[in-house]
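seq/struct pair 1
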Amino acid sequence: MRSTSHREQQRVVSKVTYDTTSNKFIGFALPLDDNGFPIANSYSTESFSCLEEWYSNVPRAKSLNAYLIQPLSSAANNTSPFLLSAYGTDNKFESSDVISRWHHIHQKFKAKDIRILGFSTDCDSRYLHAMRASLGFFSTFAYVDHPDLLSIDLPRTWSWFFMQHEQLYICFQDPVHICTKLRNRILSETTHLLLGDQLINIEPLIYMISNYSKLDHALVRSDINPKDRQNYSSAAKISSNNVVALLEKIPNSLGINIYLQAIRSVRLAYIEKDTVFLDRIYHAWTSVFIFRFWLLWINEMDKNDLDLMLAHVSHFDINDIKEQCRSKSQYFITYQSHFCVEINAHCLVYLAMLVCEGQLPIEALNIWVQNSQTCESTFRSARAISSVSSAGVNFTVLQFLNRINKLAVLQNIKNNTNQNHLHFPQHHKLSRTMQNISNTSKTIDFSKISIENTVSKAYKYVSNLFNQLKLKELSRNGRIITIEEMSNIAARALDAFWSSDIDTINSQDGSRDIESENETNSAEENSSTNDCDSDEEFELNENLVMANDANISTYRGMRLIDDVKKELSHTFFKVNINKENKFLHKQAACWVLEKDKSSLSANRLSRVAGR
């Protein structure tokens, strides 16, 4: 059996709660062992003093890490993913922890005769660094001489392919995150995307809305500059075929046209379910070549020349430009976005080669399930499963774990509808999409030669795009550079970048972008907060509630108890109050020690801002 693993992170209400089933305090940030796994039994104690010390010294979990496993199956009978692990974290870890964790997951599943083919996650710098090391992609390969390495017969003529032929597993960066980050880069107030004499910004799109019928482009202003910087649908709409075609009629829009074509190519390659597989390769490498050409041009240009060009096309003051744009990187996309596009395209071709050579079944080409959106879907379902008497949309770590058990039961019923004759309502769009997927060919209709021809076709298309910009830096003897020349220059540029000392890549501060665009805008947002659902918290029986080291009369209506049943004794602390032994319930102890009321906004925009 073959599967892929997906990871995602979600903000949670930072609150410690007691779980009576496991006799653990859940909500502290769990430490990691040598395998990068959380130590689950870290916070279980029979001492109130120990718990008090933890409250003073141990950080609370502000986020939840979730790992899901997606079994590979035919599209017509797609198996739902299942949760492998979920734990609270303070986001303090290194890329070495990620590599150890992935290897441990691979080995544990291997022992059960299950092959983990790959891992997917978002664009966190440390996960990107772990992917580079795992793939040996401009990095020292982490798994030299590993006995389980996959291997492909890599043609020598593939100068454009930078990944080595042996891999333990492949990696995919979440394409939805890539699309939103590329869209956000246009909106950044600290960068100016410059491509030749083209300033890439949203002005042509605003012109389109003002001067063309909505029937032609289907855009509104909130699609161009959304408040929610993680809104994928707006990125999809501005990169639609109609918008790209309409931009050809708008003057001075070639730069934004090329940029939106890169976003569209990422969508078609990895997200859209009905894209033919060779077309996936075409679009994946179209986006790669767009950014390689652009990077080569940026590297060939002098910083002062770039500043002067920006001053000319934007009419900004040159001194203000030099103050704001301190490096050439501010004229280009973030390095995370660039390497995400590169890694995904390489792993897509590697996966195709494994299928071509008969090492993997054709179901491995269901690319749309090999991303971390399965985790996002699980988080959405967990927020939606609150009781009818509660309007809460957020949860603590313990509440998520409780809700995920309910989701597992519901999913099990849904997966076995043929046996139990239960039918769940399904949106008509989803039904139509799944029908289109099931009608796709189940045979391999490509080869190494067709893959190479498809990549060459993508290069030719991008070359023609950049020919319109008339960039002499990309020409040799009056013609645009060949794919071999471009690949050699790009390989040296990428290797030089990663050979430089970038301390922040592996930092523990959880930075998601070194050269970052804002994920949320600065507009005033709804700041109303919504705590976790009270109906799912452990409800204290009035006979169990207590006060600690205090005059009981000061806590009206709250009592300690003198004795407990033996079978319940593990859920209580034995404390000494006014020289008398009393029993204090562990959840009540959490209430006593909690100094601040933690909450998380019910508004998704504010939750994202909190990250």
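seq/struct pair 2
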Amino acid sequence: MKATRTSLQAAMVLLPVLLSGCEAASSMAGAGLSDPKLMKSINDAYEARDNCLAANVHLADAFSTSAQSLAANVAASCQTQTDVLNALSNPHGDPRITSAIQKDSSFRAMGYVLKARGQG
């Protein structure tokens, strides 16, 4: 009887874990992660956004203003590329994903500014 009770307890613990794995896989498929063409498009959009950010940090301007201000200007100048990335990555318009992509663009812009200043 003890072995049956232990097996039942183990099953009660493992069942939700196994089911959550199925949920994660289906949500990845819903996000297009199973579509190689879409994944390539998303990767290309990331690359285009990052290239834009890097190109818009002008060495002449790198020291003329605060790092935060320059990073904000750089991120704003690449908003078109960020919007393309968001449209591909977030087809359902989830505001949390949009916010995360915007924050990532700002974070990366700051990284390029600091690198141009020799601080990163």
